[in-house]
Amino acid sequence: MDMDFTRYSRHILLPRVGMEGQRKLNQASVLIIGAGGLGSPISLYLAAAGVGRIGLVDPDQVTVSNLQRQILYSTSQAGEDKVIAAKRRLTDLNPGCQVDIFPTTFTAQNARDIAEGFDSLVDGTDNLTTRYLINDLCVLTGRPYVFGAIQQFEGQVALFDARVGPCYRCVFGVPPAAEHIPLPSDSGVFGVIPGLVGLLQAAEVLKIILGIGDTLARKLVLINSLTSSFEHIEVQKEPSCPVCGESPEIDSLLDYEQHCGATYANQPVALPDECELTPAELADRLDSGVAFTLVDLRTDVEREISHIPGAVPLPYHQLGKKMDDFDRESQYVLFCRAGKTSAWAVKRFHQAGFNKVSYLKGGINAWVEETDPSMPQY
What we know:
Blueprint: H1 9-12, H2 18-27, E1 29-33, H3 39-49, E2 53-57, H4 82-93, E3 98-102, H5 111-115, E4 120-123, H6 128-141, E5 145-151, E6 154-160, H7 168-172, H8 193-210, E7 219-224, E8 229-234, H9 256-260, E9 276-277, H10 279-288, E10 293-296, H11 300-305, E11 312-313, H12 319-322, E12 332-335, H13 340-351, E13 357-360, H14 363-370
Parallel strand pairs: 1-2, 1-4, 2-3, 4-5, 9-13, 10-11, 10-12, 12-13
Antiparallel strand pairs: 5-6, 6-7, 7-8
């Protein structure tokens, strides 16, 4: 990338950046995994700063529901691949920035090839599976991992670099049980939280490239937008860490979906055809008088948006505690917002010895679209 003195003048004027610092930025390469809420501010600010090469990994398309927080996109781009729409926006912002796009899921099978040639990796994801993968890849290849996470009104930021401090596994250890992991697609998020977290992540990347300031290599920042608070927690390297500890056990990338036990949050589950009901089939069953219990796996807030009369509320996060309250010989139909969560719930019911459990294909949004358009979709 040729030096554009006018574009980067406000950086060049900074004593701790200057001409040499801007050259470092122009020569740097950063891979961002996830082009959504976090990936939006991260990529925009890195491109604006003049980072020479940016990689974007994301398999999804832009939806209208993204636009409340994913500021990289516009309404007219709904339906486009995110990485294609993102590349157009970033190259318009800074034509000198090379944007490489990967419209695919980041997996143990392709991670090394995708990350080849990038100096650092940045977490713009919303799931544990990919976080453990990014972490292990960075540890095994000696690269920094800029971590960010969001949930509702809160966020977290850290720099995990096993060469100078702890890695992600040192801090977060073993993945929690599946029932305790929030489902990203079904959890709300305050629109500005990705911006706050993503900006701090972008700042960490720039400090790493420039070699200035104090990084978050041994700190975890906790952000609460409701109290406008930023709490710094000191984190330490764990000697028994299986990937960066004194006697590491992990020397290659794992099957992370099995390892994390959190596949349900991001991947579809295979079930027999008889476990799936279309909205029309559910309507027929409701009209026929067949004895079964309709179970709503959504939160209280979601049920205020739309509901199916007669459904029994059972929020998914309570499934582990409440499942034994149900009769294993009775028939159940489960539903959620879009079908993915309820499909995984069916699998969990089956594993617990329930044999007469099915789910609503497409969730209540499909029910609204095909059966009751008087209710809103979300």
